[in-house]
Design brief:
Blueprint (H helix, E strand, L loop, with lengths): L1 H12 L14 H10 L5 E3 L5 H6 L4 H9 L32 H14 L10 E6 L6 H12 L4 E7 L2 E2 L2 E2 H4 L14 E5 L3 H19 L2 E6 L18 H11 L1 H11 L5 H22 L30 E2 L8 E2 L3
Parallel strand pairs: 1-2, 2-3, 3-7, 6-7
Antiparallel strand pairs: 4-5, 8-9
Length: 334
């Protein structure tokens, strides 16, 4: 994950990736630990900072990079870009470009999981991840109310990286203990820089919620090293010393390395060899992704209209698609 995101940073600066791009480096323990606790049947939806979640939930570095390049071998066939990954086969329902919009959808997934589970059986859970900057949105409060009323197997997961875009939690929220925001909905705060704490904490939450006890709030205390997006240097509202201190004292990868070495599972030389292999694998995936190409123009209207299902052969292709400038429109009647 870390190497992939650093590669995304380099490819963006080389202008091979365009548009919005929100990197996840620093927060990797959250997605990795959660995925270790969840089952394949559980539903997961997240925000636009979704590259690493897509990778954890059945994706590949090649497919992630191809999507960012806008190529048809990408996870969303080159149509989604940085904010809209999707993998239905692994119950990953993507990133959302609108702040907080994934939470009502996640609540709907929780409703579906309860609806489709026989009485008395443990339910698959649904997880909606969102940042501290989205935590006070009305749609989240409404979703929490419905989830509590209907005792849905819903997990409201706040990835608290301490900044809503460039605004610190102290300045944008009157209540910054986000795990307590559910009022009578129980909540739990977890060290989101410690993969073991995330895994074990989320195992408890999954069991509690899936057993019919209703929803739960989870606050992951984490940190992002990059700015909010690639257009944000990330140093105008915080200083470099703060970032360096977090890297040196709380980095999730360094924690794993130290833990494994202290336990005698590996030595430092083995760690270096693993890192070299990862660098080579990621670079190879980048080169393979670049061999793909953008989707053809016909794909502009694929899966927009359908007669009865989403099979390609049953689609209705419209006669005309209007572009902002008429001369750039597409269709058979031009």
């Amino acid at each position: 994950m870390r190497r992939m995101e650093i590669t995304c940073d380099n490819e963006y600066k080389a202008r091979n990736i365009r548009g919005f791009c929100h990197l996840y480096d620093g927060q990797e323990a959250v997605a990795t630990g959660m995925n270790a606790a969840l089952s394949p049947e559980d539903s997961w939806i997240t925000s636009y900072r979704c590259h690493c979640t897509a990778l954890a939930r059945g994706g590949s570095v090649e497919a992630v990079l191809a999507e960012l390049f806008g190529f048809q071998s990408g996870m969303s066939k080159g149509k989604g870009g940085s904010m809209h990954f999707y993998n239905k086969a692994h119950n990953f329902f993507g990133g959302q470009g609108i702040v907080g919009a994934q939470v009502p959808v996640g609540t709907g997934l929780a409703f579906a999981n309860k609806y489709n589970t026989k009485p008395g059986e443990t339910m698959p859970v649904a997880v909606a991840c969102y940042g501290d900057g989205a935590a006070n949105q009305g749609q989240i409060w409404e979703s929490a109310n419905m989830a509590a009323l209907w005792k849905l197997p819903m997990i409201f997961c706040i990835e608290n990286n301490h900044y809503g875009m460039g605004t610190s939690v102290e300045r944008h929220s009157s209540h910054s203990d986000y795990f307590k925001m559910g009022n009578h909905i129980p909540g739990l705060r977890i060290d989101g820089m410690n993969i073991l704490a995330v895994r074990e904490g989320f195992r408890f939450v999954k069991d509690f919620v899936g057993s019919g006890n209703g929803p739960m709030y989870v606050e992951m205390m984490t940190y992002r090293y990059h700015g909010h997006s690639m257009s944000d240097p990330g140093t105008t509202y915080r200083n470099r010393e703060e970032i360096a201190l977090t890297r040196s004292t709380r980095d999730p990868l360094e924690f794993v390395k130290r833990t494994m070495i202290d336990a005698g599972f590996v030595d430092s030389e083995e760690i270096k060899n693993i890192e070299k292999t990862i660098r080579k694998d990621v670079q190879k995936s980048v080169m393979t992704a670049k061999e793909s190409s953008p989707p053809p123009l016909e794909e502009l209207w694929s899966y927009l209209y359908a007669k009865d299902n989403l099979k390609r052969e049953s689609q209705e292709i419209p006669d005309f698609i209007r572009a902002p400038f008429y001369q750039n429109s597409f269709g058979r009647i031009l």
